[in-house]
Inverse folding.
Protein backbone atom coordinates (compact mmCIF):
# COMPACT_ATOMS: atom_id res chain seq x y z
CA UNK A 1 0.00 0.00 0.00
CA UNK A 2 1.47 3.36 -1.06
CA UNK A 3 1.50 6.19 1.51
CA UNK A 4 -1.06 9.01 1.01
CA UNK A 5 -0.04 11.89 -1.21
CA UNK A 6 1.32 14.89 0.65
CA UNK A 7 -0.78 18.04 0.32
CA UNK A 8 0.22 21.03 -1.80
CA UNK A 9 1.25 24.17 0.07
CA UNK A 10 -1.56 25.94 -1.82
CA UNK A 11 -4.13 24.41 -4.15
CA UNK A 12 -4.12 25.58 -7.78
CA UNK A 13 -6.62 28.31 -8.53
CA UNK A 14 -7.01 29.14 -12.22
CA UNK A 15 -7.09 32.92 -12.24
CA UNK A 16 -4.99 36.00 -12.86
CA UNK A 17 -5.77 37.19 -9.33
CA UNK A 18 -4.23 34.02 -7.90
CA UNK A 19 -1.11 34.50 -10.02
CA UNK A 20 -0.83 38.07 -8.68
CA UNK A 21 -1.31 36.84 -5.11
CA UNK A 22 1.40 34.23 -5.50
CA UNK A 23 3.77 36.77 -7.05
CA UNK A 24 3.17 39.28 -4.24
CA UNK A 25 3.77 36.58 -1.61
CA UNK A 26 6.98 35.41 -3.28
CA UNK A 27 8.57 38.76 -4.18
CA UNK A 28 10.31 39.40 -0.83
CA UNK A 29 12.12 36.06 -1.29
CA UNK A 30 13.03 36.52 -4.98
CA UNK A 31 16.50 37.93 -4.23
CA UNK A 32 19.40 36.30 -2.43
CA UNK A 33 17.06 33.93 -0.52
CA UNK A 34 15.99 32.41 -3.82
CA UNK A 35 19.58 32.02 -4.99
CA UNK A 36 20.52 30.23 -1.76
CA UNK A 37 17.40 28.09 -1.35
CA UNK A 38 15.97 27.35 -4.80
CA UNK A 39 17.60 23.95 -5.23
CA UNK A 40 15.96 22.42 -2.17
CA UNK A 41 12.94 20.22 -2.80
CA UNK A 42 11.36 20.01 0.67
CA UNK A 43 8.15 18.47 -0.66
CA UNK A 44 4.81 19.83 -1.86
CA UNK A 45 3.84 21.25 1.52
CA UNK A 46 6.94 23.50 1.58
CA UNK A 47 7.41 25.41 -1.62
CA UNK A 48 8.19 28.87 -0.22
CA UNK A 49 11.75 28.74 -1.62
CA UNK A 50 10.53 28.87 -5.25
CA UNK A 51 7.82 30.98 -6.86
CA UNK A 52 5.54 28.13 -8.07
CA UNK A 53 4.38 30.56 -10.74
CA UNK A 54 5.13 28.38 -13.78
CA UNK A 55 1.51 27.27 -14.42
CA UNK A 56 0.63 30.97 -14.84
CA UNK A 57 3.77 32.09 -16.67
CA UNK A 58 3.59 29.20 -19.11
CA UNK A 59 0.12 30.39 -20.21
CA UNK A 60 1.10 34.05 -19.99
CA UNK A 61 -1.57 34.81 -17.48
CA UNK A 62 1.44 36.43 -15.87
CA UNK A 63 4.14 37.40 -18.37
CA UNK A 64 7.91 37.20 -18.17
CA UNK A 65 8.03 41.00 -18.60
CA UNK A 66 5.72 41.50 -15.62
CA UNK A 67 7.74 39.13 -13.46
CA UNK A 68 10.99 40.86 -14.36
CA UNK A 69 9.54 44.31 -13.72
CA UNK A 70 8.11 43.24 -10.36
CA UNK A 71 11.32 41.63 -9.16
CA UNK A 72 13.43 44.60 -10.24
CA UNK A 73 11.14 46.99 -8.43
CA UNK A 74 11.84 45.09 -5.23
CA UNK A 75 15.47 43.94 -5.65
CA UNK A 76 18.66 45.18 -7.27
CA UNK A 77 19.72 43.49 -10.54
CA UNK A 78 22.58 41.76 -8.71
CA UNK A 79 20.39 40.67 -5.77
CA UNK A 80 17.81 39.14 -8.13
CA UNK A 81 20.36 37.87 -10.65
CA UNK A 82 19.50 34.19 -10.12
CA UNK A 83 15.73 34.60 -10.38
CA UNK A 84 16.08 36.81 -13.47
CA UNK A 85 18.35 34.28 -15.07
CA UNK A 86 15.84 31.45 -14.43
CA UNK A 87 13.09 33.45 -16.12
CA UNK A 88 15.44 33.86 -19.07
CA UNK A 89 15.93 30.09 -19.20
CA UNK A 90 12.29 29.91 -20.20
CA UNK A 91 12.87 32.66 -22.79
CA UNK A 92 15.94 30.84 -24.06
CA UNK A 93 14.17 27.51 -24.59
CA UNK A 94 11.26 29.24 -26.36
CA UNK A 95 13.57 31.21 -28.66
CA UNK A 96 15.86 28.24 -29.34
CA UNK A 97 12.97 26.03 -30.40
CA UNK A 98 11.78 28.69 -32.85
CA UNK A 99 15.00 28.27 -34.80
CA UNK A 100 15.23 24.49 -34.24
CA UNK A 101 11.63 23.28 -34.67
CA UNK A 102 12.84 19.82 -35.70
CA UNK A 103 13.63 19.15 -32.01
CA UNK A 104 9.85 19.24 -31.48
CA UNK A 105 8.73 17.42 -34.64
CA UNK A 106 11.35 14.70 -34.13
CA UNK A 107 10.21 14.26 -30.55
CA UNK A 108 6.57 13.91 -31.66
CA UNK A 109 7.46 11.34 -34.34
CA UNK A 110 9.77 9.39 -32.00
CA UNK A 111 7.09 9.39 -29.30
CA UNK A 112 4.64 7.67 -31.66
CA UNK A 113 7.32 5.08 -32.46
CA UNK A 114 8.19 4.47 -28.80
CA UNK A 115 4.51 3.99 -27.96
CA UNK A 116 4.11 1.51 -30.81
CA UNK A 117 7.23 -0.38 -29.75
CA UNK A 118 5.76 -0.95 -26.29
CA UNK A 119 3.36 -3.49 -27.76
CA UNK A 120 6.29 -5.76 -28.61
CA UNK A 121 8.12 -5.38 -25.31
CA UNK A 122 6.24 -6.63 -22.22
CA UNK A 123 9.21 -5.96 -19.92
CA UNK A 124 9.51 -2.34 -21.01
CA UNK A 125 5.73 -1.96 -20.83
CA UNK A 126 5.82 -3.10 -17.20
CA UNK A 127 8.67 -0.74 -16.26
CA UNK A 128 6.86 2.12 -18.01
CA UNK A 129 3.62 1.38 -16.15
CA UNK A 130 5.47 1.07 -12.81
CA UNK A 131 7.27 4.38 -13.43
CA UNK A 132 3.99 6.20 -14.03
CA UNK A 133 2.23 4.49 -11.13
CA UNK A 134 5.05 5.26 -8.70
CA UNK A 135 5.74 1.60 -7.98
CA UNK A 136 9.31 1.02 -9.21
CA UNK A 137 10.76 0.53 -5.72
CA UNK A 138 12.99 3.63 -6.07
CA UNK A 139 11.36 5.54 -3.22
CA UNK A 140 12.19 9.12 -4.24
CA UNK A 141 11.30 8.49 -7.87
CA UNK A 142 8.00 6.85 -6.87
CA UNK A 143 7.16 9.75 -4.62
CA UNK A 144 7.79 12.31 -7.43
CA UNK A 145 5.77 10.25 -9.88
CA UNK A 146 2.77 10.25 -7.56
CA UNK A 147 3.33 13.90 -6.72
CA UNK A 148 3.29 14.76 -10.42
CA UNK A 149 0.04 12.88 -11.05
CA UNK A 150 -1.54 14.10 -7.81
CA UNK A 151 -0.47 17.77 -7.82
CA UNK A 152 0.43 18.51 -11.49
CA UNK A 153 3.70 20.19 -10.48
CA UNK A 154 7.26 19.14 -9.62
CA UNK A 155 10.17 21.14 -8.26
CA UNK A 156 12.89 21.81 -10.87
CA UNK A 157 15.50 19.64 -9.13
CA UNK A 158 12.99 16.77 -8.85
CA UNK A 159 12.30 17.09 -12.59
CA UNK A 160 16.02 16.74 -13.27
CA UNK A 161 16.46 13.72 -10.96
CA UNK A 162 13.26 12.11 -12.23
CA UNK A 163 14.24 12.45 -15.89
CA UNK A 164 17.73 11.13 -15.18
CA UNK A 165 16.46 8.07 -13.29
CA UNK A 166 13.81 7.46 -15.99
CA UNK A 167 16.44 7.39 -18.73
CA UNK A 168 19.58 6.00 -17.10
CA UNK A 169 18.38 3.84 -14.18
CA UNK A 170 15.08 2.51 -15.53
CA UNK A 171 16.33 2.46 -19.14
CA UNK A 172 13.13 3.99 -20.52
CA UNK A 173 13.04 6.16 -23.68
CA UNK A 174 13.21 9.87 -22.81
CA UNK A 175 10.32 10.65 -25.15
CA UNK A 176 7.92 8.57 -23.02
CA UNK A 177 9.01 10.48 -19.93
CA UNK A 178 8.68 13.87 -21.61
CA UNK A 179 5.17 12.85 -22.68
CA UNK A 180 4.30 11.75 -19.13
CA UNK A 181 5.31 15.25 -17.96
CA UNK A 182 3.34 16.94 -20.76
CA UNK A 183 0.21 15.03 -19.79
CA UNK A 184 0.40 15.94 -16.10
CA UNK A 185 2.23 19.24 -15.60
CA UNK A 186 0.03 22.32 -15.46
CA UNK A 187 3.04 24.16 -16.87
CA UNK A 188 3.72 21.45 -19.52
CA UNK A 189 5.50 23.41 -22.24
CA UNK A 190 6.76 22.17 -25.62
CA UNK A 191 10.00 24.13 -25.34
CA UNK A 192 10.95 23.97 -21.64
CA UNK A 193 9.88 20.34 -21.30
CA UNK A 194 11.23 18.83 -24.52
CA UNK A 195 14.54 20.68 -24.37
CA UNK A 196 15.06 19.99 -20.65
CA UNK A 197 14.51 16.27 -21.21
CA UNK A 198 16.91 16.45 -24.15
CA UNK A 199 19.40 18.23 -21.88
CA UNK A 200 19.20 15.48 -19.23
CA UNK A 201 19.60 12.84 -21.96
CA UNK A 202 22.78 14.52 -23.27
CA UNK A 203 21.24 15.57 -26.59
CA UNK A 204 20.83 19.29 -25.99
CA UNK A 205 24.39 20.01 -24.82
CA UNK A 206 25.82 17.27 -26.98
CA UNK A 207 27.69 14.60 -25.09
CA UNK A 208 26.86 16.09 -21.67
CA UNK A 209 24.12 14.25 -19.81
CA UNK A 210 22.80 14.73 -16.27
CA UNK A 211 23.28 11.91 -13.75
CA UNK A 212 21.17 11.90 -10.58
CA UNK A 213 23.16 10.74 -7.56
CA UNK A 214 22.12 9.47 -4.15
CA UNK A 215 24.19 12.14 -2.36
CA UNK A 216 22.75 15.04 -4.33
CA UNK A 217 19.16 13.84 -3.90
CA UNK A 218 19.70 13.19 -0.19
CA UNK A 219 21.22 16.61 0.39
CA UNK A 220 18.58 18.63 -1.44
CA UNK A 221 15.55 16.70 -0.21
CA UNK A 222 16.46 17.05 3.45
CA UNK A 223 16.86 13.29 3.95
CA UNK A 224 13.17 12.59 3.23
CA UNK A 225 13.97 9.40 1.32
CA UNK A 226 15.77 6.18 2.22
CA UNK A 227 17.30 5.93 -1.27
CA UNK A 228 18.17 2.30 -0.60
CA UNK A 229 18.19 1.07 -4.21
CA UNK A 230 21.29 2.10 -6.15
CA UNK A 231 20.88 4.47 -9.10
CA UNK A 232 22.71 4.15 -12.41
CA UNK A 233 26.43 4.71 -11.87
CA UNK A 234 26.90 6.06 -15.39
CA UNK A 235 24.77 8.18 -17.70
CA UNK A 236 26.07 7.75 -21.25
CA UNK A 237 24.81 10.65 -23.35
CA UNK A 238 22.38 9.74 -26.12
CA UNK A 239 23.22 10.73 -29.68
CA UNK A 240 21.33 11.83 -32.80
CA UNK A 241 21.92 13.56 -36.13
CA UNK A 242 22.24 17.29 -35.55
CA UNK A 243 19.11 19.44 -35.54
CA UNK A 244 18.73 21.69 -38.61
CA UNK A 245 18.48 25.44 -38.02
CA UNK A 246 15.93 27.76 -39.62
CA UNK A 247 15.67 31.55 -39.54
CA UNK A 248 13.58 33.04 -36.76
CA UNK A 249 10.03 33.49 -38.09
CA UNK A 250 8.70 37.01 -38.61
CA UNK A 251 7.49 38.47 -35.31
CA UNK A 252 5.27 41.45 -36.21
CA UNK A 253 4.51 43.40 -33.05
CA UNK A 254 1.93 45.80 -34.49
CA UNK A 255 -1.07 45.59 -36.79
CA UNK A 256 -3.22 48.41 -38.20
CA UNK A 257 -6.60 49.39 -36.73
CA UNK A 258 -9.49 47.32 -38.05
CA UNK A 259 -12.53 45.57 -36.60
CA UNK A 260 -10.86 42.55 -35.02
CA UNK A 261 -11.60 39.15 -33.57
CA UNK A 262 -8.67 38.56 -31.20
CA UNK A 263 -7.73 34.93 -30.66
CA UNK A 264 -5.94 33.86 -27.49
CA UNK A 265 -4.67 30.36 -26.86
CA UNK A 266 -2.86 28.16 -24.33
CA UNK A 267 0.52 29.80 -25.14
CA UNK A 268 -0.65 33.37 -24.58
CA UNK A 269 -3.75 34.24 -22.59
CA UNK A 270 -2.73 37.92 -22.34
CA UNK A 271 -3.32 38.12 -18.60
CA UNK A 272 -1.53 41.48 -18.57
CA UNK A 273 -3.79 43.09 -21.24
CA UNK A 274 -0.59 44.37 -22.87
CA UNK A 275 0.16 44.23 -26.60
CA UNK A 276 -3.49 43.88 -27.59
CA UNK A 277 -4.24 44.71 -31.24
CA UNK A 278 -6.34 47.84 -31.92
CA UNK A 279 -10.04 47.55 -32.82
CA UNK A 280 -10.90 44.44 -30.81
CA UNK A 281 -14.64 43.71 -31.29
CA UNK A 282 -14.63 40.14 -30.03
CA UNK A 283 -12.34 37.76 -28.12
CA UNK A 284 -12.12 33.99 -28.01
CA UNK A 285 -9.54 31.39 -27.00
CA UNK A 286 -8.43 28.39 -28.98
CA UNK A 287 -8.12 25.41 -26.64
CA UNK A 288 -5.64 22.65 -27.38
CA UNK A 289 -4.98 20.68 -24.19
CA UNK A 290 -5.61 17.33 -25.90
CA UNK A 291 -3.03 18.21 -28.59
CA UNK A 292 -0.28 17.98 -25.95
CA UNK A 293 -0.06 14.22 -26.37
CA UNK A 294 -1.38 11.26 -28.37
CA UNK A 295 -2.45 9.83 -24.98
CA UNK A 296 -5.10 11.22 -22.63
CA UNK A 297 -4.03 14.41 -20.86
CA UNK A 298 -4.80 14.78 -17.13
CA UNK A 299 -8.33 16.05 -16.49
CA UNK A 300 -6.86 18.48 -13.93
CA UNK A 301 -4.67 20.06 -16.63
CA UNK A 302 -7.63 20.40 -19.01
CA UNK A 303 -9.83 21.92 -16.30
CA UNK A 304 -7.10 24.38 -15.26
CA UNK A 305 -6.45 25.50 -18.85
CA UNK A 306 -10.18 25.80 -19.59
CA UNK A 307 -10.75 27.95 -16.54
CA UNK A 308 -7.72 30.18 -17.22
CA UNK A 309 -8.71 30.65 -20.86
CA UNK A 310 -12.35 31.40 -19.98
CA UNK A 311 -11.28 33.99 -17.43
CA UNK A 312 -8.83 35.67 -19.80
CA UNK A 313 -11.40 35.94 -22.58
CA UNK A 314 -13.88 37.51 -20.14
CA UNK A 315 -11.31 39.96 -18.79
CA UNK A 316 -10.20 41.19 -22.22
CA UNK A 317 -13.79 41.40 -23.46
CA UNK A 318 -14.78 43.43 -20.38
CA UNK A 319 -11.75 45.73 -20.62
CA UNK A 320 -12.35 46.52 -24.30
CA UNK A 321 -16.19 46.41 -24.35
CA UNK A 322 -15.84 43.54 -26.81
CA UNK A 323 -17.93 40.41 -27.25
CA UNK A 324 -16.93 37.34 -25.22
CA UNK A 325 -16.95 34.57 -27.82
CA UNK A 326 -15.81 31.87 -25.44
CA UNK A 327 -13.60 28.87 -26.11
CA UNK A 328 -13.04 27.08 -29.42
CA UNK A 329 -11.67 23.56 -29.27
CA UNK A 330 -8.84 22.74 -31.68
CA UNK A 331 -9.39 19.03 -31.29
CA UNK A 332 -13.12 18.50 -31.21
CA UNK A 333 -14.64 15.73 -33.31
CA UNK A 334 -11.38 14.09 -34.32
CA UNK A 335 -8.11 12.86 -32.95
CA UNK A 336 -6.08 15.68 -31.32
CA UNK A 337 -4.89 18.15 -33.93
CA UNK A 338 -6.44 16.05 -36.72
CA UNK A 339 -8.15 17.36 -39.85
CA UNK A 340 -11.68 17.10 -38.44
CA UNK A 341 -10.72 19.27 -35.46
CA UNK A 342 -9.10 21.86 -37.73
CA UNK A 343 -12.18 21.98 -39.98
CA UNK A 344 -14.50 22.57 -37.06
CA UNK A 345 -12.18 25.09 -35.39
CA UNK A 346 -11.58 27.01 -38.65
CA UNK A 347 -15.32 27.29 -39.24
CA UNK A 348 -15.94 28.26 -35.61
CA UNK A 349 -13.41 31.11 -35.93
CA UNK A 350 -15.16 32.43 -39.07
CA UNK A 351 -18.50 32.28 -37.24
CA UNK A 352 -17.03 34.09 -34.22
CA UNK A 353 -15.63 36.83 -36.47
CA UNK A 354 -19.03 37.26 -38.13
CA UNK A 355 -20.79 37.30 -34.75
CA UNK A 356 -18.80 40.34 -33.55
CA UNK A 357 -18.66 42.16 -36.89
CA UNK A 358 -14.89 41.66 -37.26
CA UNK A 359 -13.30 42.07 -40.67
CA UNK A 360 -10.14 40.24 -39.67
CA UNK A 361 -8.84 37.68 -37.19
CA UNK A 362 -5.72 38.52 -35.18
CA UNK A 363 -4.08 35.56 -33.47
CA UNK A 364 -1.60 35.95 -30.62
CA UNK A 365 1.71 34.58 -32.00
CA UNK A 366 2.00 30.87 -31.19
CA UNK A 367 5.50 29.46 -30.77
CA UNK A 368 6.51 25.95 -31.89
CA UNK A 369 4.28 23.33 -30.28
CA UNK A 370 0.78 21.86 -30.34
CA UNK A 371 -1.01 25.24 -30.57
CA UNK A 372 1.17 26.30 -33.53
CA UNK A 373 0.34 23.01 -35.24
CA UNK A 374 -3.38 23.53 -34.59
CA UNK A 375 -3.27 27.09 -35.95
CA UNK A 376 -1.35 25.99 -39.05
CA UNK A 377 -4.02 23.36 -39.78
CA UNK A 378 -7.08 25.54 -39.18
CA UNK A 379 -5.83 28.72 -40.81
CA UNK A 380 -6.42 27.59 -44.46
CA UNK A 381 -9.96 26.61 -43.45
CA UNK A 382 -10.64 30.02 -41.90
CA UNK A 383 -9.13 31.74 -44.96
CA UNK A 384 -11.24 29.58 -47.31
CA UNK A 385 -14.23 30.67 -45.23
CA UNK A 386 -13.47 34.30 -46.12
CA UNK A 387 -11.43 35.36 -43.05
CA UNK A 388 -8.27 37.46 -43.13
CA UNK A 389 -5.86 36.03 -40.53
CA UNK A 390 -2.79 37.78 -39.13
CA UNK A 391 -0.59 37.16 -36.09
CA UNK A 392 0.76 39.59 -33.54
CA UNK A 393 3.88 38.84 -31.49
CA UNK A 394 5.04 40.21 -28.15
CA UNK A 395 7.82 42.80 -28.09
CA UNK A 396 9.42 40.72 -25.33
CA UNK A 397 9.82 37.77 -27.70
CA UNK A 398 10.82 39.90 -30.68
CA UNK A 399 13.61 41.51 -28.63
CA UNK A 400 14.80 38.40 -26.73
CA UNK A 401 14.57 35.50 -29.16
CA UNK A 402 17.22 36.75 -31.61
CA UNK A 403 19.70 36.31 -28.73
CA UNK A 404 18.57 32.72 -28.07
CA UNK A 405 19.99 31.05 -31.16
CA UNK A 406 23.33 30.20 -29.54
CA UNK A 407 24.01 28.96 -26.00
CA UNK A 408 22.18 30.22 -22.91
CA UNK A 409 25.24 32.11 -21.71
CA UNK A 410 25.17 34.26 -24.83
CA UNK A 411 21.57 35.23 -24.00
CA UNK A 412 22.43 35.73 -20.35
CA UNK A 413 25.20 38.21 -21.22
CA UNK A 414 22.63 40.23 -23.18
CA UNK A 415 20.02 40.40 -20.37
CA UNK A 416 20.92 43.99 -19.32
CA UNK A 417 20.64 45.20 -22.94
CA UNK A 418 17.34 43.33 -23.45
CA UNK A 419 15.87 44.77 -20.25
CA UNK A 420 17.01 48.26 -21.25
CA UNK A 421 15.48 47.92 -24.72
CA UNK A 422 12.19 46.77 -23.19
CA UNK A 423 12.29 49.53 -20.57
CA UNK A 424 12.10 46.97 -17.75
CA UNK A 425 13.69 47.89 -14.43
CA UNK A 426 14.60 51.40 -15.51
CA UNK A 427 12.51 52.95 -12.76
C1 LIG B 1 12.99 17.53 -17.19
C2 LIG B 1 12.44 18.93 -17.02
C3 LIG B 1 11.22 19.26 -17.55
C4 LIG B 1 10.70 20.56 -17.40
N1 LIG B 1 9.49 20.85 -17.96
C5 LIG B 1 8.99 22.13 -17.87
C6 LIG B 1 7.75 22.46 -18.46
O1 LIG B 1 7.10 21.65 -19.10
N2 LIG B 1 7.30 23.74 -18.30
C7 LIG B 1 8.01 24.69 -17.60
O2 LIG B 1 7.53 25.83 -17.46
N3 LIG B 1 9.21 24.39 -17.07
C8 LIG B 1 9.72 23.15 -17.17
N4 LIG B 1 10.94 22.85 -16.59
C9 LIG B 1 11.72 23.94 -15.98
C10 LIG B 1 11.52 24.16 -14.48
O3 LIG B 1 11.60 22.94 -13.81
C11 LIG B 1 10.18 24.82 -14.14
O4 LIG B 1 9.96 25.97 -14.93
C12 LIG B 1 10.15 25.27 -12.67
O5 LIG B 1 10.41 24.16 -11.84
C13 LIG B 1 8.83 25.87 -12.35
O6 LIG B 1 8.69 26.11 -10.96
P1 LIG B 1 8.67 27.57 -10.36
O7 LIG B 1 7.66 28.40 -11.09
O8 LIG B 1 8.53 27.45 -8.90
O9 LIG B 1 10.11 28.09 -10.76
P2 LIG B 1 11.00 29.26 -10.16
O10 LIG B 1 12.27 28.64 -9.70
O11 LIG B 1 10.27 30.08 -9.19
O12 LIG B 1 11.36 30.12 -11.46
C14 LIG B 1 10.57 31.22 -11.93
C15 LIG B 1 10.15 31.00 -13.36
O13 LIG B 1 11.29 30.91 -14.21
C16 LIG B 1 11.08 29.91 -15.21
N5 LIG B 1 12.06 28.83 -15.01
C17 LIG B 1 12.68 28.49 -13.87
N6 LIG B 1 13.55 27.49 -14.07
C18 LIG B 1 13.46 27.18 -15.38
C19 LIG B 1 14.11 26.23 -16.22
N7 LIG B 1 15.06 25.41 -15.75
N8 LIG B 1 13.76 26.17 -17.51
C20 LIG B 1 12.83 27.00 -18.02
N9 LIG B 1 12.19 27.93 -17.28
C21 LIG B 1 12.50 28.02 -15.98
C22 LIG B 1 9.66 29.40 -15.03
O14 LIG B 1 8.79 30.12 -15.88
C23 LIG B 1 9.38 29.71 -13.56
O15 LIG B 1 8.02 29.87 -13.31
C24 LIG B 1 11.46 21.55 -16.72
C25 LIG B 1 12.69 21.20 -16.17
C26 LIG B 1 13.19 19.91 -16.31
C27 LIG B 1 14.52 19.57 -15.72
Amino acid sequence: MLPPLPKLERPWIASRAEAERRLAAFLPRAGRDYAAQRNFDRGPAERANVSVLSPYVRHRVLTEAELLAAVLERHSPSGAEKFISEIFWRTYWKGWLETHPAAWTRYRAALDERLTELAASPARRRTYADAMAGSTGFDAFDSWSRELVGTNYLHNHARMWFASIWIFTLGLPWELGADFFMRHLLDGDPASNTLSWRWVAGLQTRGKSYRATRDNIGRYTGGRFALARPLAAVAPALDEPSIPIRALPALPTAVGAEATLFVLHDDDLHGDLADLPPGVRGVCALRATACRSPLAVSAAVAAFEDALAGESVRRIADAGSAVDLGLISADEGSEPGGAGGAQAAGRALCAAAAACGATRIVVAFAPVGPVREAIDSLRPIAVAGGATCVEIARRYDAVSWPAATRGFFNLRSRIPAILAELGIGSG
